[in-house]
Amino acid sequence: MKKTGIILILVLLSILFIAVYSVNPVSPGESNTPNLNFFNPDDGVTLAAKQGLNNFLSLIPAGDEKLYGFEKREDFLRAEVGEPLKMYSLNPGFLNDPDADLKKFIFPLNEWRVPVLIDGKMVSLLTVIKENDSYKCVDIGGSALATELNSYEKYFDKNSDEKTLLRLYQIRCDILIISGKNREVTDGSCYLLSYTKKIFEQYGGNGTGPVKFDSISPIIKIIYSQSLNQNKK
User: Fold this and answer.
1) What pLDDT, on a 0 to 100 scale, did the predictor assign at position 207?
2) Which domains does the chain possess?
3) Residue 115 forms beta bridges with which residues?
4) Angle CA(66)–CA(72)–CA(74) in degrees, nearest 5?
5) Would you place residue 83 in the very low, low, confident or very high pLDDT band (cuts 50, 70, 90)?
6) DSSP labels for 86-118?
7) How far is CA 188 from CA 70, 149, 157, in A?
8) DSSP three-state, residue 63
9) pLDDT band, residue 187 (cuts 50/70/90)
10) What is the pTM of this model?
């Protein structure tokens, strides 16, 4: 009788295990990961970039490879995607109150730049957008920006830092922000990129080395000051 009871319990446990496994099956070598698009945006962005890479490479006209950062067409076979850079911007309202908390004005765009890598070096950038709750690769280009971003890798610790790009539409420039993974974007170190340095050259942006600000706040005050000067003209 006891033996029959034990067998019955084992059978019930087996049925329970099969029921659970059929709802959440896990293939050999895979983890039971959640939906990429819902739980981890960067995973969804990377997937869209990987799916769009070969298509956009095929659209590059023969002879124009160098315009997109490639030495020769054969390099396409070695191209990989890197870690996405989230794009942010600022609401123009900060121009009316430059001393306010920047967290009120900075906001993420539904847009990412995803580096195209050859032997670990950035040569071009894919643009991925979020549209109707899905991620879509829509463009390739920006080889000059990609090449310059390589020079800032030495200031970046992939284990503890995150990279983002702040796009300031008011003065048409991008700023690289490197911040700790647990820090606000507004507290990250800001690096002026080469074409941005020209705008800030009166503030030390005309040198050959990196122009760094410890946070976004000083940059905002500069933009505010320039805005006042332009309004007086």
Assistant:
1) 45
2) 31-232 (3.10.500)
3) 125
4) 140
5) very high
6) EEEEE-GGGGG-TTS-GGGTEEEEEEEEEEEEE
7) 32, 16, 13
8) coil
9) confident
10) 0.73
